[in-house]
Amino acid sequence: MQDPKDIQDIKRPPKELIDALYEHVSSATAAGDLNKMGINNAFIQGPTTYTPGKKIVGPAATLQFMPKREDVYADGEYTDPELQLHRHALYGTQPGDVIVVDALGSMDSGVFGNMMLTYFLGAGGIGAVIDGCIRDFPEAPEELGLWLKGVTPNYHTQTTMFPYAVNVDVNCSGTFVAPGDIIIADDDGAVVVPIHLAEELAEQGKVHAEWEEFSRQKLEAGGDLRLYYPLSDEARPEYEEWKKMNG
To answer: Could you tell me the residue range of the domain that residue 206 belongs to?
Structure first.
């Protein structure tokens, strides 16, 4: 189990990059464009939205759980709280952070409850993507975006797992997430954006959003799907003129 003194903070991207991704890139756009960049499946399958209508974009702080072994972890919900790493995963929270949890897909352990999530929100956290569950769901702060596999009344170490490491690479529901990667999550689900591809994705996303809006308008007016989606070379001059007219 990681010593709390060894926990490293994450590196956070510029606010301008987060804002550009939030404005122009949905989870669907991110998944499609990242595929073109060589990332075949950046979708974190399993966790689904428990806060419909909410979108978040932010850097990932990570928390890793491991199967419980009694000689490594002494059971107890409040046994020496400061040795429980799920608390330390939240201590470094800065505004705009997303907590991503490898909870082994467990459906009977509540990684966080109302009090922990309230603390996370108060420190500036914007959302959680958990390959597992939370508890106290009815009291969870409404302002937080939550992508979960489910909910449970059990606390985090009640059954078969315990928090093992913070801000390390994790397997979140079969998807590799590194601390500091960017999470884009909305009603379609959560996608991890490798940090070294984030600027390129923001640029591609802006272009993608522009031509899709043009195409949507054309299709809404009865335009030919073969001509406008995806945007064909034949329709591109019309698109360029539309861009000039719309600034």
So the answer is: 200-245
* pLDDT tens per residue, range 135-175: 999 999 999 999 999 999 999 988 999 999 999 999 999 99
Name the phi and psi angles at 109, rounded to 5. Answer: -135, 125
Segment 44-99, tens digit of pLDDT? 999 999 999 999 999 999 999 999 887 888 765 456 777 789 999 999 999 999 99
The DSSP result for 65-133, as a single string, is EEE--TTT----TTSSGGG-HHHHHHHT--TT-EEEEE-TT-SS-BS--HHHHHHHHHTT--EEEESSE
29 and 133 part of one domain: yes
Both 222 and 115 in a single domain?
Answer: no
Q: Are residues 222 and 184 in the same domain?
A: no
